[in-house]
Design a protein that fits this description.
Shape: elongated
CATH topology of the largest domain: Arc Repressor Mutant, subunit A
Oligomer: single chain
Number of domains: 2
Strand content: 5-15%
CATH architecture of the largest domain: Orthogonal Bundle
Strand order of the largest sheet: 1-2
Largest sheet: 2 strands, antiparallel
Helix content: 55-70%
CATH class of the largest domain: Mainly Alpha
Number of strands: 2
Length: about 120
């Protein structure tokens, strides 16, 4: 799974955010192995220490687990990440001024739509 840096933030933070998105949206699942710091550094053209700091940020957030001499593995449960993303989106809508009644109507409408 390849990530791309946009150059808008600290590189290690950007690495962490990109992998967090992949985990949150289910592209990476619990038990999946991330590339080695060296391999990621080569792919992105960054220092291996920067990649390692990005992985450390993911570990601090509870999204990955480093197993010595084995690698870095995704350890987050999908449900908790999904709830966190939903909370973040709902808070953004609330701050934008969307009334609760409209949010509930929209959610009901989307859940009842035929996906075909």
């Amino acid at each position: 799974m390849e990530i791309r840096l946009r150059g808008q933030k600290n590189i290690s933070e950007e690495v962490a955010e990109e992998y967090e998105k992949l985990i949150r949206y289910g592209a990476l699942r619990e038990g999946d192995k991330l590339p080695s710091c060296r391999a990621l550094a080569l792919q992105l053209g960054i220092n291996p220490n920067t990649a390692e700091r990005g992985f450390a940020l993911l570990e601090q957030r509870g999204l990955v687990k480093t197993i010595p001499k084995k690698g870095v593995f995704v350890c987050a449960a999908d449900g908790s990440l999904l709830h966190e993303e939903a909370k973040r989106q709902i808070l953004a809508l609330k701050q934008a001024g969307l009334p609760l009644s409209e949010l509930l109507d929209l959610a009901k409408q989307l859940y009842e739509e035929d996906p075909t």
